[in-house]
Amino acid sequence: MKSSFYHLLHFFLPISFLLLPYQLDAAIKISQISGNWTNTATWGGAGMPVNNEEVIIAAGTTVNLNYAFPINTSILALTIQPGGMLIVTANTSTFRIQNDIINNGVLNLWQSNALQADLILYGNSSWSGTGTWNISSINVQNYGLELKSGLTLNVNGTIYTGLNGSFNKLNKHPDITLNFAGTVNSNLPASSTDFFYGHLSVNKTSGTVSFLPSLVSNLINMSGNLSLVNTNDKLLINDLNTLTINGSVTGLGYISGGGNTGSLIIDNVLATQINPLRIATGTIKDLAINRTAGVVLENGFTVRENLVLNNQCRVVLSNETLVLGDNSPISAGKFSGDGYLVGSANSSISVRGNDPNPTYLRFAQGNPTEYTLKKFTLDKLSGITGLFSNSNLILSGALEVSDNNIYEIGAATLTLNSVNDFFTSGSLRGSFLSSLVIGGTSLVGYSIRFDQSSLSSRSLKSYTQSRKTTVTLTSLLDVSENVSLTGTTSKLASNGNLTLLSSDIYSAYIAALLNSTDIIGEVNVQVFIKGNEIDMAYRGNRLLSTPINDALIASGSKKSVEQLKDYLIITGPNGINNGFDQGGNSQPFAETLVYYNEAALAGQPSFTPVNNINQSLQAGNGVLTFFRGAQMGTYALNAPKLNFPFTAPEPVTVTYKGIINKFDIPFITLSNSLNAGDNFNGYNLIGNPYPSAVDWTKVSRSAGVNDEVIMIKPGGGQATYINGFSSNGGSQYIQTGQGFYVRTSVNGSTVSFKESCKTSAYPSRLLFKNDKLLQNNLSSDVHHKIKSHCKVLRFHVEDKISSEETTVVFRKDERDSADYNDAMYFSGGPVKLGSFSADKKLLAVNFMPDLEEIQEINLYISAEKNGSYNLNFTEIPSFSGSVYLKDYLKPEGLIKIKKYLSYSFSINRDDPATYGNSRFVLIFKPERKEDKIISQPDVNKTLTAYPNPVNNEVTFNTEAFSNKNFRLMILNMFGKIIKTSKFLMNEKATMNVFDLKPGIYVAKFRAEESGRILGKTKFLKL
Question: What pLDDT was estimated at residue 1011?
């Protein structure tokens, strides 16, 4: 009978069924008609399928599963042919199977929560086919379930497992899909070694899908896409699990940590952006984004421990709050990686937790919107929060800094556009590269506090306030660049806390106080005075002024002169009886703080002393002081600076404290006594009254006041600016605390300083700058602003340390005798250089008639020491003839002047013929062949730069001094050294300039051994 049965079976079944991997003697039940599982007629009278039988749902038949398989009873395998259906019809049904399911029809084991049948495996099972799968719950027990590639399974319940159960473990197909539907919660095994998911979809009317919690850290395997269809759909990661998403995330639902220890990784570096990524309000332990395209967050949530952004990804914040760290239960929130947060005007961040280390975030800097937040809350137990260096931040709402919290600005700009809260001990931390902007439209004022743990932490590069209200400093704040109040009624209440820093590299200033802006209360204004502990040339005169208003100094408090004495040695009339320092042995009452007396006659003192240490200094007046170095506090300590052989003066930073000079300063009256034979008639000593550089060309001057400024250089000598031309680095810009000489031709003329004359331009900071390189370049730069019909001859004398420059300007209709267009030569430093007018007046800047009208100009050259010197010509006027240098100690001929000519000579103080006004003369004449031109071995050959213009690397032709070791210096047009490098003799002079900004630069060459300037040339950086 058995053989006859299989003969009939072969007749009815497709060939594929002959190849089933089961024993051929197993019973096979095939549905003959539609009907219930328990109905014998359904199976052609053969009885319903029972334990260890194979079941085939034939095409065109529908079998109603109304049977609950007894425990330990299961069919062997199931095949549903195309058009066949197996549908649950009794809620008490269960379906137990030992082996495979081939479904090319419909397998529906769930119709509702009240009508469903669980599917339980009793052996390893492989599922395949093109049919529809609608499953309630699956219990794999301790067996393995494998799905054919591309198969989609609809699950309305839970996937259960025993300790050894697995899913997709053998094949790990990435393209299988589990669609979770229904109205009840569904759970998924999460074992990293046994369960491998492809695509997951959640489309429930209600309920969630949850991965089962783990007892140890566990990585969930999911290789495909995630779809969360409805707003109520939620996928819970759960405790100690980490879900990695390699594909897309779509739909309106949410991912949830499902507790405090679930984590999420968005992986696949090259995949597309996830937009949006919805994470349910609650917590994620760790969130890592490794995808370069990043994600767009839909809502706010908490990352308890680690927010990791890798591969320069971009995470666009939502309009809600992203919280990093947690205070209940406590957890240290950390940010790492090279990726970027992208903010908006409605985005907020809160940093909490107990991480003792600083928490630094990074925002994209492509445009201001990207680094804007609505609110930033710092609520760690204690510690620092900030942005990685160079990351700006704009807050459209509040910055809330809780107790023991610090926001670190970094080398960037923090902009606050709302009312901000700094709790009892909350503060900002700045640096010398930090900038703070107080903006917004609110009229409500508030206070700001800075971390006081170091000089840097309480510092800013700049402070800008456009908010039309009063912002109050409640702690010390040092500013190294500028304070700018740009709102019409912006006010900063300093109350003695604000300090404007000054050093040899910066000098902070308060920008113009226009409209109703104001700085309220006392300010500390620093003025740096250059010294040099090994160079006695720095012991000498300086011109000073005060930036504070002595008239508003409270009774009993120190005014400017007494404050100056706190930092400098100030001796004066009647010594200590008048509050001055005890003087030296030879001059105990030496007058070292004096006013210039323009009206003094010949034989009378040109200066009158400050008579008492309590004397006030008037705003806008200048004083001359003899600089000996720092005040040491006692005579015993000061004595080496007061008595021969003297010690060289060190640099000193003076701090004036008081209400600053501000708004319009009462006009200063100038005098011109017209004393007979006095070459210095009309010169008056005034000073910059403001804690800011001023532009002399913008200062209000009555008729007769020259466009002329003369200052004393550190180390001696003068820096001159006149009518747009200069020598020795003099310029129209005058720094804070700087006194200077001006000249008038009209007695009783006036000078008026107003806020509008303040400038942000870099001034010739002559209280401390004695860089001959800077001075020479500044002189050239100023000149280029003048009309082109002027011709300029510029040259300087130098030794290894000091330099003195003079300028001759040739202009039609000028006189060759001295007048008010010329700048007098006051006095030189260690080296001295000037030119004479036709009436023998020694000038620093000499305006002469047109070149064709001049035959010769006598020079004055001197020095304090014997030695070798160079006369360098840096600017030569175009001329139909030629200009020659005549050295009367070289009677054999003339030296034709060329640009960058460097003429070497010696001075012997015991031989008057080697210096003074009788050695050198400039001769102007047409070229004649009979002139004998002597060749100077130190005259530079022409320097060239190539390529010019240049993008990356520039090379210089240094053949002229190839036998010397030299240093190449690259300077910008303000004379600042940008790059420098040393080259050995015969070494090719090449420098990489790729990092330079586009513009014109000067390449200057200096001999290493002698310090002598060998030449310079210009190039254009593209």
Answer: 67
